[in-house]
Design goal:
Layout (H helix, E strand, L loop, with lengths): L25 H15 L27 H13 L8 H11 L2 E3 L3 E3 L18 H15 L2 H17 L1 E2 L4 E2 L10 H15 L2 H17 L1 E3 L2 E3 L17 H14 L3 H15 L3 E2 L5 E2 L17 H15 L2 H16 L21 H15 L2 H16 L2 E3 L2 E3 L1 E3 L8 E3 L7 H15 L21
C-alpha cells in the first residue's frame, strides 16, 4: 500500500525560465526535464508516486487524465531511449502504479478512483481502469515484461465483468463519451482484442456499440449523443460528443463490420457537418457546444480531437471529405496564428494537451504523419519553442503554470498529468524528438488515436 508522507523540498524552490544546454537533442532534453519534474513533486515512499499538482493537499490520482499513468508512459519511453532523468525512475513509478491495483470483478484488477461505488474505481478511458490498462498495454509492447501483460489481461477481465446489460447491448453507467463513458472504454476493448486476442473484449465492445446506437438522438441534421440522458448542454466534439462516439463506432465497424455501426457514424458526420464553420475558406472548426459561438482549439472540444473522427471516416468510407476536414482543421489553427494568435480566442487559454498548445502541437505531428508535408513539422517545432518560452524550471526540471479551467483564469497551478501537466507536454516533446531523429521505434498509440505515431517510412 502506497502511503504518501511529504512533498520533496525541491517543490518549494523558486522557478526561473528554462534554457536548454548545448545539445543536438533539445526536444529529448525537454522531455527528460518535464519527466524530472514529476518526482520533484513526488511523495517520499517505498515507490515513486506524485500528486496531480503542486497545490497543497493535492492527492495522488491513478487516472490517465490527471494522474500517474501518463507520467509512467513518459518514463517508460525515456528508459527505452536510455534517457531517464534518474536511474530507476521508470521502474519505481511503474511499481507504484501496479502496487495501487486491487482485486476487481471477475478476478480482475481495478484501481482507486472517483468511481461509481465504494468498491471499484471508474472504468473510464481517461478517468480510470481502461486508461490505466491502455498505458500498461503500450508499455508491454515496448518492454515485453510479462507482469504488464498479466495486469492488462486482468484489467480487461474486470471491465468485461463490470458491463451492465441493457435492453440491447451494455454499458458501464458512466455515460456515452470518450473521456469516461462507453465510447472510450469500447475503444480500449477493441485495442485489447486486437493485441491480446480477447474475444470477450470484442463482444463487450459490440454490446457497447449497440447501446450507443440506441442512445443516439436523431436531429434534422444527423445524429448526436448527450453524455448522459437529460443533460441540457450538447457537446458535439471528440471528448464528450458525436465525434468521439462516432470514432468508436467506426473503429468497431473496422474490427467487426456491421452496417449499423457505419450508418450511425455517418449520421454523426452529417450532424457535425451541419455545425461546422468555415473561416476563412478551407479552414474548419466546430462550436464548443450547440447554440453557442465559443470555439475551443485543442483535443477536448476543438479541431485536433474532432479531426480524429474524420480521419477514421476517411479510412472507412474512402471518401475525400473526411481527409479534407482533417486538413481544414489544421488550416484553421494555422490561420488563427497559434501558438501566438492574431486575435482573441476565448477557447485558448493554456498550454496543455487537453485544452491548449501541446494538444495543437501533437495534432500538427498527426498531420505530418498523415501527409508527409514538412510544413506541419515546422508548425510543431513552433509549438515546441513556444512551450519552452512559457516553461519554468528548478535546476532543469521543466514545469508549466497555468489555469486548467477557462472560467477560472485566476486559479493557476502546476500540474503533472497527461491532460493538463508535465507528463502530457513531455510526451509531445518526446514524440517530436522521435520524428526529428527518424527513430525506428514505433511510438505509442493510445486507443483514441487513429493517426500513426510516426510518419510512414
Amino acid at each position: 500500500m502506497l502511503i504518501p508522507i511529504t512533498l520533496a523540498l525541491a517543490s518549494m524552490l523558486p522557478l526561473t525560465t528554462w534554457a536548454p544546454s548545448e545539445t543536438d537533442e533539445p526536444y529529448l532534453e525537454a522531455a527528460r526535464a518535464a519527466a524530472a519534474h514529476l518526482w520533484v513533486t513526488a511523495t517520499d515512499s517505498d515507490r515513486l508516486a506524485w500528486p496531480t499538482s503542486e497545490t497543497p493537499g493535492a492527492a495522488i490520482s491513478w487516472s490517465l487524465y490527471s494522474g500517474m499513468p501518463g507520467g509512467v508512459l513518459l518514463l517508460g519511453w525515456l528508459a527505452a531511449l536510455d534517457a531517464e532523468p534518474r536511474p530507476g525512475a521508470f521502474k519505481d513509478a511503474l511499481a507504484a502504479l501496479l502496487a495501487a491495483a486491487r482485486p476487481g470483478p471477475g478476478e480482475g484488477l481495478t484501481w482507486p478512483g472517483s468511481g461509481e461505488n465504494e468498491s471499484w474505481g471508474s472504468p473510464g478511458l481517461y478517468t480510470g481502469d481502461a486508461g490505466i490498462a491502455a498505458v500498461l498495454l503500450e508499455l508491454y509492447g515496448l518492454t515485453q515484461r510479462p507482469e504488464l501483460s498479466l495486469a492488462v489481461h486482468q484489467g480487461v477481465t474486470s471491465l468485461v465483468a463490470r458491463q451492465t446489460a441493457a435492453a440491447r447491448g451494455g454499458h458501464w453507467e458512466t455515460g456515452t463519451d470518450v473521456i469516461s463513458g462507453a465510447a472510450g472504454i469500447g475503444l480500449f476493448l477493441l485495442r485489447a482484442h486486437r493485441r491480446l486476442h480477447r474475444p470477450d473484449a470484442l463482444e463487450a465492445a459490440r454490446a457497447a456499440g449497440r447501446w450507443l446506437v440506441d442512445q443516439a438522438e436523431r436531429t434534422g441534421t444527423g445524429t448526436r449523443w448527450r453524455i448522459v440522458p437529460g443533460l441540457q448542454r450538447v457537446y458535439p466534439n471528440f471528448s464528450h460528443g458525436a465525434a468521439g462516439v462516432g470514432a468508436f463506432l467506426l473503429e468497431l465497424h473496422r474490427t467487426s463490420p456491421h452496417g449499423e455501426w457505419r450508418a450511425a457514424a455517418e449520421q454523426a458526420a452529417t450532424y457535425l457537418d451541419g455545425l461546422v464553420t468555415e473561416e476563412p475558406a478551407g479552414c474548419w472548426i466546430w462550436p464548443h457546444h450547440e447554440g453557442d459561438s465559443l470555439q475551443y482549439v485543442s483535443y477536448c472540444h476543438g479541431p485536433p480531437g474532432t479531426a480524429r473522427f474524420y480521419q477514421l471516416l476517411h479510412r472507412v468510407t474512402r471518401e475525400p471529405l473526411g481527409r479534407e476536414r482533417v486538413l481544414g482543421a489544421g488550416r484553421w489553427l494555422r490561420a488563427a496564428g497559434l501558438p501566438r494568435p492574431t486575435r482573441p480566442l476565448p477557447g485558448y487559454w493554456n498550454v496543455s494537451r487537453c485544452c491548449g498548445t501541446a494538444g495543437v502541437g501533437d495534432f500538427y505531428l498527426d498531420l505530418h504523419a498523415m501527409t508527409g508535408d514538412a510544413s506541419w513539422l515546422t508548425a510543431a517545432r513552433e509549438i515546441a519553442e513556444d512551450l519552452l518560452d512559457r516553461s519554468e524550471t528548478r535546476s532543469g526540471h521543466l514545469a508549466w503554470r497555468q489555469a486548467e479551467h477557462r472560467v477560472r483564469p485566476e486559479d493557476l497551478t502546476i500540474q503533472t498529468g497527461w491532460a493538463q501537466g508535465s507528463a502530457g507536454i513531455g510526451l509531445f516533446f518526446l514524440r517530436l524528438y522521435l520524428v526529428e531523429s527518424k527513430a525506428s521505434l514505433p511510438g505509442w498509440q493510445l486507443p483514441d488515436q487513429p493517426f500513426a505515431p510516426l510518419p510512414e517510412r
